Amino acid sequence: MAKAQKTAMLRITQVKSIIGTPADQRGTVRALGLKRINDTVEQADTPVIRGMVFKVKHLLKVEEL
Predict the structure, then answer these.
(1) Three-state DSSP class for residue 7
(2) Candidates 3.40.50.2300, 3.30.1390.20, 3.40.50.450, 3.30.390.50; CATH matching 21-64
(3) Which of 4, 16, 38, 55 is an S-S bond match for 59, by CB 3.0 to 4.6 Å?
């Protein structure tokens, strides 16, 4: 039986409002699972999530776990 690999995680916190941002950026923040300022989610550290974070990095705080 194969051992499960421990995947790296990111703790993502929304620190700025999405009011006044383009619709694609609002959608990206929502797709990350964030709903309001100071909302925090943990996501797997994958290239897809990293790309989403890069797109809206000015609205977020990201920590590696």
Answers:
(1) coil
(2) 3.30.1390.20
(3) 16
